[in-house]
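Checklist before submission:
- one chain only
- standard amino acids only
- sequence pasted in full

Submission:
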Amino acid sequence: MPSLLPPFLALLCFGATALRAPLAAGPVGRAEEPPWCPYKVGGEAAAAATGGRLCFRPPARGFQCAARACRAHRSPGGALVANVLANGSVLLQWGPPRPAAGLRGFALNCSWDGTYTRFPCDSVELGAACRDYLLPEAHGSVRYRLCLQPRYAPPRPAPPAQCVEFRVEPAAMREIVVAMTAVGGSICVMLVFICLLVAYITENLMSPALAPAAAAAAAPRRA
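Returned file contents:
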Protein backbone atom coordinates (compact mmCIF):
# COMPACT_ATOMS: atom_id res chain seq x y z
CA MET A 1 0.00 0.00 0.00
CA PRO A 2 1.54 3.34 -1.01
CA SER A 3 2.24 5.85 1.74
CA LEU A 4 0.03 8.97 2.03
CA LEU A 5 2.64 10.98 3.92
CA PRO A 6 4.28 12.82 0.95
CA PRO A 7 0.96 14.15 -0.48
CA PHE A 8 -0.14 15.17 3.03
CA LEU A 9 3.09 17.09 3.64
CA ALA A 10 2.77 18.81 0.26
CA LEU A 11 -0.78 19.91 1.16
CA LEU A 12 0.42 21.34 4.47
CA CYS A 13 3.23 23.28 2.77
CA PHE A 14 0.81 24.69 0.18
CA GLY A 15 -1.61 25.85 2.89
CA ALA A 16 1.14 27.49 4.91
CA THR A 17 2.37 29.33 1.82
CA ALA A 18 -1.14 30.56 1.00
CA LEU A 19 -1.58 31.84 4.55
CA ARG A 20 1.78 33.62 4.61
CA ALA A 21 1.11 35.49 1.35
CA PRO A 22 -1.87 37.58 2.60
CA LEU A 23 -0.12 38.28 5.89
CA ALA A 24 2.97 39.50 4.08
CA ALA A 25 0.95 41.64 1.67
CA GLY A 26 -1.20 43.20 4.39
CA PRO A 27 1.43 45.32 6.18
CA VAL A 28 2.92 46.47 2.87
CA GLY A 29 -0.46 47.76 1.69
CA ARG A 30 -1.01 49.56 4.97
CA ALA A 31 2.48 51.07 4.81
CA GLU A 32 1.75 52.58 1.42
CA GLU A 33 -1.44 54.27 2.69
CA PRO A 34 -1.04 55.09 6.39
CA PRO A 35 -4.25 55.98 8.22
CA TRP A 36 -2.79 59.01 10.04
CA CYS A 37 -0.55 61.97 9.23
CA PRO A 38 1.71 63.06 12.11
CA TYR A 39 2.51 66.75 12.32
CA LYS A 40 3.76 69.38 14.74
CA VAL A 41 2.93 73.09 14.52
CA GLY A 42 5.52 75.65 15.55
CA GLY A 43 5.18 79.30 16.52
CA GLU A 44 4.18 80.99 19.76
CA ALA A 45 0.42 80.91 19.16
CA ALA A 46 0.45 77.28 18.09
CA ALA A 47 2.71 76.27 20.97
CA ALA A 48 0.31 77.91 23.41
CA ALA A 49 -2.68 76.13 21.83
CA THR A 50 -1.21 72.63 21.45
CA GLY A 51 1.62 72.73 23.95
CA GLY A 52 4.12 71.71 21.27
CA ARG A 53 2.68 68.20 21.15
CA LEU A 54 2.75 65.85 18.20
CA CYS A 55 -0.68 65.73 16.56
CA PHE A 56 -2.32 63.35 14.09
CA ARG A 57 -4.91 63.93 11.38
CA PRO A 58 -6.56 61.59 8.84
CA PRO A 59 -5.50 62.16 5.22
CA ALA A 60 -8.00 63.63 2.75
CA ARG A 61 -8.00 60.77 0.26
CA GLY A 62 -10.00 61.19 -2.91
CA PHE A 63 -10.51 64.94 -2.51
CA GLN A 64 -11.38 66.79 -5.72
CA CYS A 65 -11.61 70.55 -6.04
CA ALA A 66 -15.14 71.34 -7.29
CA ALA A 67 -15.47 74.41 -9.49
CA ARG A 68 -18.22 76.14 -7.46
CA ALA A 69 -16.89 75.52 -3.95
CA CYS A 70 -13.12 75.45 -4.48
CA ARG A 71 -10.34 77.18 -6.39
CA ALA A 72 -7.01 75.43 -7.00
CA HIS A 73 -3.64 77.22 -7.12
CA ARG A 74 -0.52 75.34 -8.25
CA SER A 75 3.15 75.96 -7.65
CA PRO A 76 5.39 76.69 -10.69
CA GLY A 77 6.62 73.08 -10.64
CA GLY A 78 3.11 71.70 -10.12
CA ALA A 79 4.12 69.57 -7.13
CA LEU A 80 2.20 71.64 -4.55
CA VAL A 81 -1.50 72.50 -4.89
CA ALA A 82 -3.43 74.89 -2.63
CA ASN A 83 -7.21 74.26 -2.73
CA VAL A 84 -8.94 77.40 -1.41
CA LEU A 85 -12.38 76.31 -0.19
CA ALA A 86 -15.52 78.44 0.01
CA ASN A 87 -15.51 78.43 3.83
CA GLY A 88 -12.09 80.13 3.97
CA SER A 89 -9.99 77.05 4.74
CA VAL A 90 -7.13 75.88 2.50
CA LEU A 91 -6.25 72.25 1.78
CA LEU A 92 -2.66 71.69 0.62
CA GLN A 93 -1.86 68.60 -1.44
CA TRP A 94 1.40 67.23 -2.81
CA GLY A 95 2.71 64.03 -4.34
CA PRO A 96 5.50 61.74 -3.14
CA PRO A 97 8.91 63.35 -3.67
CA ARG A 98 11.73 61.78 -5.65
CA PRO A 99 13.83 60.09 -4.51
CA ALA A 100 11.77 58.53 -1.72
CA ALA A 101 14.73 56.77 -0.04
CA GLY A 102 15.89 58.53 3.10
CA LEU A 103 12.86 60.84 3.35
CA ARG A 104 12.29 61.96 6.93
CA GLY A 105 9.42 64.39 6.49
CA PHE A 106 8.39 67.80 5.23
CA ALA A 107 8.76 71.38 6.42
CA LEU A 108 5.89 73.77 5.64
CA ASN A 109 6.54 77.49 5.96
CA CYS A 110 3.86 80.16 5.68
CA SER A 111 3.99 83.93 5.20
CA TRP A 112 1.58 86.66 4.15
CA ASP A 113 1.98 90.13 2.65
CA GLY A 114 1.39 93.15 4.83
CA THR A 115 1.23 96.78 3.82
CA TYR A 116 5.00 97.32 3.96
CA THR A 117 6.53 93.94 4.78
CA ARG A 118 5.93 90.17 4.79
CA PHE A 119 4.88 88.51 8.04
CA PRO A 120 5.66 84.85 8.89
CA CYS A 121 2.92 82.39 9.82
CA ASP A 122 3.21 79.28 11.95
CA SER A 123 5.58 76.65 10.55
CA VAL A 124 4.56 72.98 10.40
CA GLU A 125 6.67 69.82 10.54
CA LEU A 126 4.98 66.87 8.82
CA GLY A 127 5.80 63.18 8.71
CA ALA A 128 7.11 61.40 5.64
CA ALA A 129 3.72 59.71 5.08
CA CYS A 130 1.77 62.99 4.87
CA ARG A 131 0.44 64.08 1.49
CA ASP A 132 -1.90 66.92 2.54
CA TYR A 133 -2.44 69.48 5.26
CA LEU A 134 -5.45 71.67 6.13
CA LEU A 135 -5.25 75.33 7.09
CA PRO A 136 -8.53 75.76 8.97
CA GLU A 137 -8.79 79.55 8.76
CA ALA A 138 -7.18 82.01 6.36
CA HIS A 139 -7.63 85.76 6.51
CA GLY A 140 -9.53 87.36 3.66
CA SER A 141 -7.96 89.88 1.25
CA VAL A 142 -4.46 88.65 2.24
CA ARG A 143 -1.95 87.17 -0.18
CA TYR A 144 -0.39 84.01 1.26
CA ARG A 145 2.81 82.22 0.27
CA LEU A 146 3.25 78.61 1.36
CA CYS A 147 6.47 76.66 0.75
CA LEU A 148 6.90 72.91 1.20
CA GLN A 149 10.40 71.41 1.44
CA PRO A 150 11.21 67.69 1.80
CA ARG A 151 13.66 66.72 4.55
CA TYR A 152 16.13 63.86 3.99
CA ALA A 153 18.54 62.05 6.24
CA PRO A 154 22.15 63.27 5.99
CA PRO A 155 24.25 63.45 3.97
CA ARG A 156 21.57 64.01 1.30
CA PRO A 157 20.86 67.77 0.99
CA ALA A 158 17.32 69.11 1.01
CA PRO A 159 15.94 69.91 -2.47
CA PRO A 160 14.51 73.34 -3.30
CA ALA A 161 11.13 74.12 -1.78
CA GLN A 162 7.92 74.20 -3.83
CA CYS A 163 6.01 77.44 -3.20
CA VAL A 164 2.46 78.47 -4.07
CA GLU A 165 0.83 81.89 -3.70
CA PHE A 166 -2.88 82.64 -3.45
CA ARG A 167 -5.38 85.16 -2.10
CA VAL A 168 -8.48 84.31 -0.08
CA GLU A 169 -11.67 86.20 -0.80
CA PRO A 170 -13.02 88.20 2.17
CA ALA A 171 -15.84 86.61 4.14
CA ALA A 172 -18.27 89.40 3.25
CA MET A 173 -17.64 88.89 -0.46
CA ARG A 174 -18.19 85.14 -0.11
CA GLU A 175 -21.51 85.73 1.65
CA ILE A 176 -22.62 88.14 -1.07
CA VAL A 177 -21.75 85.67 -3.80
CA VAL A 178 -23.59 82.84 -2.02
CA ALA A 179 -26.66 85.03 -1.45
CA MET A 180 -26.75 86.20 -5.06
CA THR A 181 -26.42 82.63 -6.29
CA ALA A 182 -29.23 81.46 -4.00
CA VAL A 183 -31.78 84.15 -4.89
CA GLY A 184 -30.74 84.67 -8.51
CA GLY A 185 -33.12 82.01 -9.80
CA SER A 186 -36.04 83.37 -7.78
CA ILE A 187 -35.46 86.90 -9.07
CA CYS A 188 -35.43 85.68 -12.68
CA VAL A 189 -38.72 83.83 -12.16
CA MET A 190 -40.33 86.91 -10.60
CA LEU A 191 -39.20 89.14 -13.48
CA VAL A 192 -40.64 86.73 -16.03
CA PHE A 193 -43.93 86.62 -14.13
CA ILE A 194 -44.10 90.43 -13.98
CA CYS A 195 -43.46 90.72 -17.72
CA LEU A 196 -46.20 88.21 -18.47
CA LEU A 197 -48.59 90.04 -16.17
CA VAL A 198 -47.90 93.39 -17.84
CA ALA A 199 -48.42 91.86 -21.27
CA TYR A 200 -51.72 90.32 -20.15
CA ILE A 201 -52.98 93.64 -18.74
CA THR A 202 -52.00 95.49 -21.89
CA GLU A 203 -53.71 93.04 -24.23
CA ASN A 204 -56.92 92.29 -22.30
CA LEU A 205 -57.78 95.32 -20.13
CA MET A 206 -56.54 98.40 -21.92
CA SER A 207 -57.53 97.40 -25.48
CA PRO A 208 -61.38 97.36 -24.85
CA ALA A 209 -61.22 100.78 -23.14
CA LEU A 210 -59.42 102.34 -26.11
CA ALA A 211 -61.75 100.84 -28.73
CA PRO A 212 -64.75 103.34 -28.25
CA ALA A 213 -62.42 106.34 -28.32
CA ALA A 214 -60.85 105.14 -31.54
CA ALA A 215 -64.33 104.61 -33.11
CA ALA A 216 -65.49 108.11 -32.04
CA ALA A 217 -62.38 109.68 -33.53
CA ALA A 218 -62.94 107.87 -36.83
CA ALA A 219 -66.66 108.84 -37.11
CA PRO A 220 -66.22 112.60 -38.09
CA ARG A 221 -63.77 111.58 -40.78
CA ARG A 222 -66.44 109.39 -42.42
CA ALA A 223 -69.05 112.22 -42.20
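Reviewer check: The chain is about 40% helix and 30% strand.
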